[in-house]
Model the fold of this input.
Amino acid sequence: MALSPSVTNELLRQLDHRPNKKLGQNFLIDGNLVEKSISMADLPTNMPVLEIGPGLGTLTERLLAHGHSVYAVEIDRRLEAHLREQLASYIESGQFNLLRADAVKYPTANLPDEIDDFAVVANLPYAISSAWLEGLLGSGKLPLRMVIMLQKEATERMLASPGSKTFNALSIFLQACYKTGGKHAVPRQCFFPAPSIDSVLLRMDRLENRFPFPNHVRVLIRRIFTQRRKQLGSLIKNEDSAVQEVMHCWLKKQNLCPSIRPEKISCAEWTELARSIPEEI
Done:
């Protein structure tokens, strides 16, 4: 079960650790949400699990108790030392594998290359949630399922529809590979310290006909969305001639007017663009 606010506070005092706002450290203090994460994931016992920012190890311990091999990445040195001490028996048995590193640079932690099917169950550090997801989607290793805690606003952006104010590049990349498998609202009071916004526990299931956007196309689309309110025809002029030619052909094939704005174009239409642009361009 999750630690109570007083026990969490005392443990942090013993560790001489102050929650780092820059790293997005908000510790879960509601045990029901730990169990909710596991039940939402609904994983077979032998499914390896990737955890990002295990912190004090509350969720980690329950995942291990359910028989999962856990591969975790934690950037904080004090928290890493605490995890190594508290979960030493699991480390010795090989069930718990911990890497001290930046999760944005190591989005799949130390997950072995030979593991293809795995899940992500994590209370994502809010400061890196979007950057980590971008890294994961570009890593070439896509989990079968994700159950992740996110700030409510971040969830709204990721699940946004074309034409909405929050639709962005990450919305496209994520929705091309995953569908929503369930959501659960989480009040801010469930964390210590309490963040300034409520959260959402979100399940995402990998699509059978998924399309991971190649890196060179993701770079292009992210660049376009930095000026999302401009007409696409104007933005295309900023690209080199080869890309301009491909994009004009794509607009014509998709019956899209050059005056359209990037945020109005559907995920399926962006996918067709990605299929049209060879890596060598």
User: Anything to note?
Assistant: The chain has two domains: 5-206, 218-276. The chain has a mean pLDDT of 93. The radius of gyration is 20 Å.
